[in-house]
Every structure is written in structure tokens, then in C-alpha cells.
Amino acid sequence: MDEMRKKIIIQEINAWKESRMLPEQYCNYLLALYCEGERPPSHQNEIRKGKKDLLSMLWIGALFAFIVFLNYFTEIPIRMQMLLTTISIIIFGIMVRRFSGRKIIYQISLMGMALSLLLLTVSLADFIAPGKAGILYMFLFLNCGLWILLGIKLKLLHFSIAGGLGIVVALSLLLI
What we know:
Blueprint: H1 3-19, H2 24-34, H3 43-72, H4 78-98, H5 103-128, H6 133-154, H7 157-175
């Protein structure tokens, strides 16, 4: 096979890998096949993707820290807090959808979304029935149950553990 044709095929496989048209293992196999065992030319793209993931993780952490700051350290009205937290949940949902093929950044986005949902439900419980612990515990149990279901469905053990521990802590606080 001539070199020009080989370069075109390798570029196509790299494009498939970046757009996730094929699973990464298949693309790596095809690249190894067409590169005849040499290092595929997309190594720079992997380094660039790692830097983008790190930057995205920093943005996710900053967004979550901002939402926690808004909810607990400012005196803005509770409706505004709930609106901004809802917007952050939507942003985290978009990030979860965008990073669905990447393990760590996907899980961090999912955790940010779950914790923002917890903040929203605590604010909602305080808004609906201020001072009533029963409503708050109901929302906490719903969140923990959602975490357990999410952990089972997505095979994320840390979500299941967090949900189980949350239920145990909420039950112990309820019974004390």
C-alpha cells in the first residue's frame, strides 16, 4: 500500500477515535495494524486531551465551589439560590453528556451534578417547610436512593456506597 493512502487511512481512524464513532480499542487496533507496530501519530492529541480534561476538572470544581458558596455564605434570596443551583445542575448534565466516553471527568461531572441536586433539594425542603425535619429527611432519603440506583445502573461503586452511607447517617440522625 502506498504511503499517501496509508496516511489518509490513519487520519480517518484518528478522526473516528476522537469523535468516538468506534470504540477506542478498535481504533487502537486499526492504528497498530496500519502503522505496522510503530507509535501512532495521534500521541499529541492524547496529551492535548489530557490537558483539556484537567482544565475541565478545574472548571467543574470551581463551579461546584461557587454553588456551595452561593448557597451557604451569601444572603441572596432562596429562590435565586435554587435557580442558580438548577442552572448548575443543567450545566453538569451537559458536561456528563459531553464527557460520557471519558472515565474520570465523566464521574466528576456526575458527582457535581448529584451534589448540586442534593443542595437543591435541601434548599427546596427549607423553602417548602422551614424548620420541619421530616420533609428534609424525605428529600435526603430520595437523594440517597437515587445515588444507589445510579451506582447500580452505571456500575459506579462509589455512588452506591455514598447512597448507602447517606441512608445510614440520615437514619441515625433521625433516630437520635
